[in-house]
Amino acid sequence: AGAETVKRAVELDLASRFQESLVCYQEGIDLLLQVVKGTGWGGGGRARGGLAAELCHDLFFSDGKYHKQIRIEENATGFGYEKLFQEYLTEIVSEVWVEDPYIRHVHQASRYSLYNFLRFCEMLVKGPCKVKTIHLLTSYDEGSGRSQQISSLEEIQQSLRNYGVTLNIAFSSSIHDREIRFNNGWMIKIGRGLDYFKKPQSRFSIGYCDFDLRPCHETTVDVFHTKHTKKM
């Protein structure tokens, strides 16, 4: 019964019926743990069962939210935006929120944040989702780079308009956290925001164009699913 319930949870998960799948995961895990505790596992069943319950709780439930953590190691490759976000960009996604204080000047030391944001927008335009609105909240570049920052964002805004996508841009002097939210309930928090790629060695080095081949800075990605991000 436990195995069948977990199987049903996986089917619901693949169908993007996340809240129902979480309930099935919990029920299935509880049933399996009852078997574990009943068999004893050589006298250590209670301890192992308790540990399993704790691990399952941490994996699937954090204050009622789904939580998954991805650790990107220093110099790791294979973490382009498509690989990282595609799983959560289901066909019902039509609205995206990006909060990142460092979507700034293209010549900022070792940062390509405006280009990274452009690449992220390209992924949304290409993806299976039908994004109509992107909300960007960032901070102003300091000094003389502000005018170029605004000009570059307006160019991205105009280009997106050609694809039927509206980009709303807002600035905040107090923004600190970095997070990306989709209106299907998924929320992704990346320690370094969209700027987790290392500077390419040159314009003609492998990884300059293909972000899957670009080495990364070490960072942590936390993925949540919660009904509190936005009602569908």
UniProtKB/TrEMBL annotation:
Name of a matching Pfam family: MIT_C
Domain MITD1 C-terminal phospholipase D-like: start-end pairs: 78-225
InterPro entries, sorted: MIT_dom_sf (IPR036181), MIT_domain_contain_protein1 (IPR052817), MITD1_C (IPR032341), MITD1_C_sf (IPR038113)
Stored Gene3D superfamilies: MITD, C-terminal phospholipase D-like domain, Phosphotransferase system, lactose/cellobiose-type IIA subunit
GO biological process, one term: midbody abscission
Domain of life where this protein originates: Eukaryota
Cellular component GO terms, alphabetical: midbody
Stated name of the protein: MITD1 protein
Native species: Pelecanoides urinatrix
